[in-house]
Design goal:
Blueprint lengths: L4 H25 L7 H11 L5 H8 L3 H13 L3 E5 L7 E5 L1 H25 L1 H15 L11 H7 L4
Helix pairs in contact: 1-5, 3-4, 5-6
């Protein structure tokens, strides 16, 4: 058994990628074949107030052009819409559509199912202990859904 730091980092990243890849595949099977992990982060950022490409880019630590590309993909698939600002009709604001909300809800359900699968493999206590240990290491520095780490989004945005 290795005790190298790089291997631990790869195991943690592998756990994330396994969850993300399985969730993406399951979303496709449930009628959302065009979803990528970056879309989930973008939708959460929009829900928390990022209502244009500039603000979405800032929140996701990507360029305005990259954010605009993500918005175009989300619009094309019906997850977001542009609507006139109620205060300034010249300004268009991003809004998550009913389809976008439904996809997010389905994604949360899938992640709960994936967690349950891990619990059935190693036991609920082992998963709870893992989660507790990770929280102890990370403290308040966990990745927020509405503001992911830039490297994460940049790695995934090629699929936007």
């Amino acid at each position: 058994m290795s005790r190298r730091g790089a291997e631990l980092a790869l195991l943690l990243l592998g756990g994330f990628r396994t969850f993300a890849d399985r969730a993406t595949a399951e979303l496709a099977a449930r009628g959302y074949p065009d979803v990528r992990p970056v879309h989930d982060f973008a939708l959460h950022a929009i829900l928390s107030g990022a209502d244009n490409a500039s603000e979405l880019g800032r929140r996701m630590s990507v360029t305005k052009q990259s954010a605009a590309k993500t918005i175009a993909a989300l619009q094309e698939h019906g997850y977001v819409a542009r609507e006139p600002d109620p205060v300034d009709r010249r300004r268009m604001r991003l809004q998550v559509t009913d389809r976008g909300h439904a996809m997010l809800h389905e994604g949360e359900t899938i992640f709960d199912e994936l967690r349950a699968q891990w619990e059935s493999q190693v036991g609920p206590e082992a998963v709870a202990n893992l989660e507790h240990t990770l929280r102890g290491f990370l403290g308040d520095n966990t990745i927020r859904l509405d503001k992911p780490a830039g490297w994460l989004v940049q790695d995934s945005s090629s699929d936007a």
